[in-house]
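pipeline/complex-builder :: batch 7 item 3
reading input block
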Amino acid sequence: MHPTPLTEATRRLLYGPAAFRREDEGDDRLFYATDRLVSHLDELARATVARLIAALVVEEHPAILDLMASWDTHLPASLQPERLVGLGLNRNELERNTRLTERVLHDLNRDPRLPLPAASFDVVLDIVAVDYLTRPFEVFAEVARVLRPGGLHLVVFSNRCFPEKVVKIWHESSDQERILIVEDYFQATDLYTESSLWISQGKPRPASDKYGGPGLPSDPVYAVWAERKGRPASLAVRRPPPVVDRPPWDEDEVARRKAEVGRTLRCPYCGEKLSKWAVPQTPFTEYDVEFLWVCFNDRCPFLVRGWDTMNRQGNRGYSYRMMYHPGKGYCGSLPVPTLRALRESIIEE
Ligand SMILES: C[S@@+](CC[C@H](N)C(=O)[O-])C[C@H]1O[C@@H](n2cnc3c(N)ncnc32)[C@H](O)[C@@H]1O
């Protein structure tokens, strides 16, 4: 599914100067002068970003620009760049990033031009920072300029931030709308191929995480990327979409458990006890029973994998919970937009 290009008038309306105001309009160089040697994503999300980079960066020894860089570029150990330039605002953070071969201090909001020669990189990464750009259209065009034809521009974002420095349009948008915004940044110049999207969300947060605990999922990872147009025929590399995890369950075992759900009232995927769930009585209700049995285990692999499956089917932002229909005796799924959804109708845990 690809977005329709915006007309110039719509773009002006959506992305006028007010869209890029921030609560703190002070000098970014001062704001970022404080060292922040912290992780901006939980461990699982960081591993996901490394896995994504490993899948998309197919060049053997690429020249990489890490835009809006800090102390961690998230490169997998297997990737050995010929050159890794980090461009950011905090000298100490860049010094701590031991994989960098060059460090550039540059404020993209003061001057969106990159102090780097044209066609000098195979890959440009912008990890969890695109929401701070006040002149994103100019920066995206600049990234295209410094990329070699066929080069990769990968933008990754999540849902944590320094709120006072985030631009207004981002603040006021949902995660799904933010995907569209980044797609617009790419589309606004004619210099990129059509962008691709990959999402990882709804995974259980690692128990060791500082915010690990019941209910809070791992930080979502949204990735939007495109190539600089003009890929030469001699460039053999193709960027495969990241590998989708195989189902972590044994199909035969699940089929056997499904045949017995009416008796066990346990989820065939995770083994948890199912909850009795009142079917909302609306004119749109499609079930001819008063209640269903539903798995409300937030760590159930059927649910965890469902975010990815639904996204690939074009249902961005949804997963599903396993349900058992007691009248007809079959297992199915109930779509959910969040982990909290549907819980209000649980009548028996
Ligand atoms: C949330 S951190 C992400 C850092 C790093 N990319 C990572 O994945 O850990 C946001 C980064 O954006 C950079 N940044 C923010 N505003 C910037 C600007 N105006 N120009 C250049 N870099 C900026 C800051 O230096 C900061 O390190």
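note: The chain has a mean pLDDT of 91.
queue -> next item
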